[in-house]
């Protein structure tokens, strides 16, 4: 790789120019300043900037150059090819705290959650939710995180039938008023939490991956931890790791944040 970079210095310097402008943010950088920071001749960098400008990758403005609109088009093309399930597995494998844990990606379907992806991890905990599995949204962490996006009236309508609120363990919340109150706490806390409601001794944590487009169905990203070793400190670290994974899976170019997701994130940040 080093040899290839040495044989294409113009490409390497072009990438470094884009990196400098990314770091500069709203501040335009002149050719002389970029040449100084990159330790290259100004004449050489000037030609590179002309080529990048011609392709729309950078744009001239008062005081120098900024990133160009062509990068938005390229970023959009990349994002259209990103599969959230594939992004989920990659994020699981590359997140140190959770790559050994059980993680799930799910969507809300009526009163159930449907699991789209499941990462087995390496911990001694039997895999309980496989791809295509359905679990009650009322008692799962991923389900609670997704239900927090609904208002109380919709939750009461959707879960009016007691059959939609099964009790899998003695800790399962089966009362409708108690369910509405629990979801209110999820909104305040900023993430879903299942303390042995699905399986005894297992703590589930989950939060929502912001939808990529307005009106698109939201995903929930969750993890299952052994209750005996999951204290408040580990929970906080796990939620932070899930938050980082969720941001990675979500479309980073979605500038119009959903108000539910913004409120949930603010609640998480306030609790840290």
UniProtKB/TrEMBL annotation:
Keyword Glycoprotein applies: no
Stored PROSITE patterns: HTH_ICLR (PS51077), ICLR_ED (PS51078)
Highest taxon, organism lineage: Bacteria
Chain ranges of the IclR-ED domain: 70-255
Pfam families membership: HTH_IclR (PF09339), IclR_C (PF01614)
Keyword 4Fe-4S: no
Keywords of this entry: DNA-binding, Transcription, Transcription regulation
All residue ranges annotated as the HTH iclR-type domain in the record: 8-69
Protein name per Swiss-Prot or TrEMBL: HTH-type transcriptional repressor AllR
The species this protein was found in: Salinicola endophyticus
